[in-house]
Each structure stands twice: as C-alpha cells, then as structure tokens.
Amino acid sequence: MDTPDKKRFKIYLRVFWALVLFPLLMLVILTAGTASGLFGKLPSFEELENPQTYLASEVYSSDGQMIGKYYIQNRSQIQYKDISPYVINGLVATEDARFFDHSGVDLRSLFRVFFKTILVHKSSSGGGSTITQQLAKMLFPREKKMSKFHVLIQKIREWVIAARLERQYSKEEIITMYLNRFDFINNAVGIQSASRIYFSTTPDSLKMEQAAVLVGMEKNPTLFNPVRKKANSLDRRNVVLFQMKTYNYITDHAYDSLKTIPLKLKFKPENPDDGLASYFREYLRDNFMRKWCDTHLKPDGTRYDIYRDGLKIYTTIDSHLQKYAEDAVEQNCKYLQPYFFKELKLRKNPPFDFRITKEESNNLIEESVRRSDRYVTLKEAGATDEDIIRVFSTPVPMTVFTWKNSKHSIDTVMSPIDSIRLAKSYLQCGFTSIDPHTGYIRAWVGGIDHRFFKYDHVKVGKRQVGSTFKPFIYTLAVQNGYSPCYKMPNVPITINYDNQSWTPKNADTNDDGRMMSLSEALAKSVDRIAAALTQKFTPQAVIKVVRHMGIEDKIDAVPSLCLGTCEIAELDMVGAYCTYANKGIWVEPTFVTHIEDRNGRVLDQIKPETSEALNQQDAYVMLKMMEGVVESGTGVRLRYKYKMMNPIAGKTGTTQNCSDGWFIGITPDLVSGCWAGFEDRAVHFENMEYGQGATEALPVWAYYMQKAYDDKSLNITQGDFERPDKPISIELDCNKYKEENNTSSGEELFK
User: Fold this and answer.
1) CB 732 within 8 Å of CB 624
2) CA-to-CA distance for 257 and 106, rounded, in angstroms?
3) Which residue from 457, 459, 524 is spatially nearest to 675, judged by alpha carbons?
4) Which of 176, 142, 174 is nearest to 156 (CA)?
5) What angle in degrees, to the nearest 10, is found between the helix axes of 470-479 and 616-632?
6) CA end-to-end distance (rounded Å), the chain
7) pLDDT in tens, 38-97
8) What is the DSSP annotation of 421-487?
9) Closest residue by Cα to residue 551 from 532, 536, 566, 530
10) 10 Å Cβ neighbour count for 551?
C-alpha cells in the first residue's frame, strides 16, 4: 500500500513526464504536419536540386585576369577542393562539431537547448542549429514580422528542409553551398569574395588565423566585423582557434602561437568604379550585355540577367596593356593640367574661352546643372527653381577629383556650382588600342577617372577629328593612281558650293606658295592640298572610302570635311586606321570573344565582321605616307623626344581653337589612338604649344607603346610593316618618280 509520500511522488512524476513528453509529442505532431505541407508548401525536389542562387557575372581579360563583376550580391561559386581545410575545420569545430555525423538535425544539440536554454534559462549553453539548418535558412529565408507560432513552424520547416538537403547532397556539397552563400558584409558574399576583399587572397590560400577570422564572422558578421570591430573580431578569432584545439584540429602549441598573432587585414573593398578598365566595363554592361541579355534566352524561356545568373564574359582586353594605357593617360594629363590652371587665372569667365560671354558661360553651367543627379532629385522632390539655385550656390562638404594624390580625390567644402566649374576645368582623354589583324580591342580608357567623370570618350563621345581625317582623302588619291611623290602647289584655293565660297588657310604658313609632294603635304598636314584633293574627287567619294573602312557616323558631304569637321567616335577612327595595318582588310573592332553560363557552358561566341576596304597595295602605300608624319612631320617628336626609331605610321589632329587634340599611331601589331580635350569645346588651351594633338595626345601614345615594347611577355614587334603579296606598281622612291615623270606640276587638278 502506497504511503502518502509515495502517492505524491507518483503524481509529481506523472506531472513531470507530462510536462516533458507533451511538448515533445506536440513537437512530433507539428513536425509531421509541417513535413506533409499542412502549414505551408515545402520546397519541391526541383527547388532543392536547383536552389535559387544569385551569382555575380564576372568579366575576364584575354590573359585570364578577372577585371570586374556585375552583381546584386557579390557572390562567386567555388568548389570544395578550392577551399582551405582551415576554413572547413574551423567552421565545423565552431558551428557544428558533429556535422559529419548527424543527418541535418543534431538531436543532442536540440535536447541541450531544450533542457539548458529553455528549462534552465542558461543562455550560454549554445544554439542547436546545424550548418545544414543554417543553409536551409539561407536558401529559403524567413518572412519578416512573424508571430511566435509561425517562427516555431518556420524552425520546424528548416529541420525538414535540412533533412531533405542531407539526402539530396553530400556533406562536402552542403558545406560548400553554405560557404558560397554566407554574407560576410562589406560587399563580400561567399568565401571567395571574402578571401579577396579581406585578405587579398584566394580561399585555398588562406592562412589558419585568416580562416579563423572569416569563420568567426559566421556567428554575427556585423558584431565581429574585422574592419570596424577589430577587438571583437580578434577575440572571436581566438575562440575559433580554441574550438579547433578542443576538437583536435590543431595542437596546443599551434593554438598558443596563433592566438598571439595580431589581426592583419589586406582590406580592399570592391567598388564597380575601382580596378582596371572601368569605362570599358560600364560600356560592356550598359550597351553590349544589356542588348545581349534581351536577345538570348535561358532554357526556361526567360532572359539572362547579368546581376544574378553568374555569367562569365571573356573579353579581348589585355590586363597588361590596359594598365599601361591607364598609366599613360594619367601621366600626360597630370603633366598638362597645371599649365591649364595657370591659364585660367587670366580668364574673365573661367574655365571658358575668352570669347565666351558671361551669359553664354552661365548658360553652359546651367545646362550641366540640369543634367546632374542632384538637380533631378530636387525636381522630383518638388523644389522650385529658386530653391534649386539656392542649393547649388550653398557650399557643402563634398569629395572632388584631384591629381595631387594617388587616390585622385580630396574632401573639401564647395558649392555644387563651383564643383561643376572645377570638373569642366580638367583635361579629359580617351585612348584605344586594337590588334589590327583580329580586331581585338586590347586597351580601352574612356576618361581620367570613372568615379568623377562618367562620360566615355572612346565610343559614347564623338568629337571633331581634325586632321586625322586627312588620310582618308589621300587614300582616295592613291586609289586613283596618284603616287605619294606627286607634287601639288600649296597655294590658296577657293571652293564654291551651295551659293557659298570657302577658302581654307593653313595653320602653318612656312610652306605657302611652293610645290609639295602628297607625302610631304600629309606629313605636314597642309589644309590647302587636302581641300584641293577633296574638290578633285568630291566629298561624296571621300565619304564612300570612309564607309568602307567601318565608320558609320553622320558625315556631311561638304568641302570642309577635309579638315575633319565631322564628329566621330574614337573607337571607330582607330578601327578604320587598323585597315592600313591589316593589308586593306577592315575588321570590326571586337571586345568580347565568348560568354559562358555559371556552369561553364558556352552560350555565345562572337566573331567580328570583316570586309575588303582597300587593296593591299593602297594600304601599304598609305602606311609609307603616314610614316612621313613621324619621320619629318607633325609627329616627329616621337623620334627626337621619345627616341622611338622603329617603323611607325600615324597622324596628328588639332581642331579649331585647340578644342580637340588627336594622335593615331600604327605599328604592325597594335593600332592605338588618343583623343584629348575638355568636356565642353568652349574650354581649351589658348595656344598651340599645349593645345595641339602632338602635345595633348601623342605623348599618351608614346608612353603606352614604350611600356608595351618593354614588356617582353607581350611579344610586340618593332619590325617593319609587311609588304603586299604582289609587286607594288606605285612608285614610292621620289627620285625615280621625278626621273620617270617630266612634269612635277599638279595644275591639272585645278582645271
């Protein structure tokens, strides 16, 4: 017979087990109901097989360097074998010690949480989530503002999903998926981005203490941010190392040594404007890839998305040549800028030309104000014109461009209006380099700094081309059988058209009145002879030559086109000049070779268009004529100043009032062109000393080619141009030409 104490004990025992078993029973019921879909649809087999993962699309140079990304989340996918074992071991030791033993849900951890955390309220006992459960939470995230019941159901959903993930994937695949998806903040999503951004290395090369820092962030990346919370990060790193010692991944001695190492970061945050070829990458994104995605569909019929689909875009850009080009642009613009600032001190409406009135100056500034993001934002907010003027006239803290430091930026206080005037005062530059035989663009520099000056001067911008247009006119003469030795009088010529008359004048009058060969006239860029040839063959015939050489921009058939008054993109001009170095074959300038999906499957291969624009002989004769520009003409400083003695053909160009400076240089392996000037044509140097193409643009070409030649790994030849396959019928030796022709007059051109 039970005593009263025994009866009370049995009652307490029943109550205890009821309190323990009832929640467990309810948990089992809720789990079964969740697994059956009673509380909401669970991910299907296909969704588990192919979970939605946003991957950054990556841009690669021709020599295999990743030069940029397009992303919403800066995530890259890597395989298990490419992850350092220090990361794997540290993660398992710290987050889920029995990871390789459980099946997605660690019952021992759950019971520990239940008894110690819930019943005993011991918060230091740790959590119960496994790595697989955390992955389930990443793949199928919780909704915001959920009730406590829905939070419980969601937790159970994650258990069920974790168990199914364990059946679907191997342990290696699960831990790889987890590390590829985790957001390490500071624009580093996934272990690959984190390794590069925090330590400038790859996941397989992480040192043990570096791996411990990244693993430590998995508990709370904001709290243990090694950039902003260094002390917290260091303490957490040592916790990870201690856990690795506890589970025998490292020895006591290794732990004692590693925990004393200070936190050493090589933090390099990734910004779309940073890195190589920022202007090129923006053009690739906004023009080429946007159109490509609109016309290429995925197997499910949807369009590709460069921000989510993890495309790999392989370009023709050479990372070495791109770096040399960017350095060359900086070197010359940085050198010339102080001379322009000195000129500004004497101007009444800086930075504009002295001919620009105050009213015209204000109109130009107002136009720039209306194009600014600040103006658009204020207008959308309902600001009046008076409010906007007040905002733009009020000094505020801002960061502006400068050449005075390596960061090219300085923090200052300035009104937005003054910042616009300052921006217009900086010399801009565009540079392009192309392999003439393949059409592959090897370097693309659209401006001096994409962070501050977004406008691309390679393809988007179009400027007057000046005397770089003249070779097209001389090409037409050669096609009509004229020898470079043929002489014409450098005398005034008046051309009548559309009830108007035009009499061009030479920039240099030293040779006025004498007979000049076509070769010499091109070398010295004589306007009168270019105009006479244009009149002889007609502007329409010149335009036809230009069209064959790949230039499609609008060109008016007027006599003055011989002076390069038409506006053409730099890329198109350099592409046309490639025709001379490629034996008369025009090859479409190309900057993408192929595109792959995230799994490496080739989606598209790009092959440039080609056409025969000139015959081999005419192309070669033009090369020889343009060599005269460098030997004794407007490009001669390549010889005496830059000591470049190898065969070089080219042409300088300077437009009216020194608004645009050009140089396009041709070598057997590379054809490269440079434009230099200011944002507004009304802003320019006042004299030819600094404002001509031979000063603004030619040095950029010289600096670039010097570095290209010095880099022996590029194998860029300094040899001569290849002769045509057949004998040349046009005489290039002017002494022989004089003997064979009784007259040296070009009077018939003017009849």
Assistant:
1) yes
2) 33
3) 457
4) 142
5) 130
6) 142
7) 445 545 545 455 566 778 899 999 999 999 999 887 777 889 999 999 999 999 999 888
8) HHHHTSPEEEEEEE-TTT-BEEEEE-SS-TTT----TTTT-EEE-GGGGHHHHHHHHHHTT--TT-E
9) 566
10) 21
